[in-house]
Amino acid sequence: MVKNTHLHDNFEVNFTLKGFTSILIGVYFFLLAYAYKYILDSFLIEDHALGLLSAQIIEIIFISLAAIFVLFSSFSLFFSGRRNVKRFQQQLWNGKTKAAFRKYLIGILIVFSVLIFLMNKGLIDLITPVFLIQYSIFLFIFKNKTRKNLLFLSGISLLLGIYCLVIPGYWYSSLTILGIAHATYGIVER
Q1: I need a labelling partner for 31 at 20 to 30 A (CA). Which of 7, 76, 101, 175 fits?
Q2: What is the pTM of this model?
Q3: Whole-angstrom distance, CA of residue 20 vs CA of residue 93
Q4: Is pLDDT above 90 for 114?
């Protein structure tokens, strides 16, 4: 059997945000939003165990949860990519995937750096809207010609980010809606 290396040698095919991968990332968004909401609500209750923690410890917990979210989402992309390359009998890592992976890591570092900067400056109300806007840009950068529907997910994230700028208390609903949008995208884009 002859391998067709130029049809399946790019990041978009090897590491694609569709199907079960997108559904998993949507579930991760939903769980992250729920965990943040639960921790914040519990922190405000006097007799709750989380209410006894300092604000700095809560910040560390939030950063750790975000890192776990990124790690699990990245693993979802990686294992989906491994499945795809086995099916097409290709190499997972090639020039294009390595370059795209570097962009992916740089993008994640930029997002985390900006969010931690906002947190350190006390601009807590800007964290979710800025994240959603950065995420929409991130999705836009990694779209390809065959995945134009990814622009809808990017647009939803952008609109939710703008909405959060106007109504900061809408952060939980925005992250939940983004999780549902991801899962829906995964169901539609198989």
Answers
A1: 101
A2: 0.82
A3: 21
A4: yes
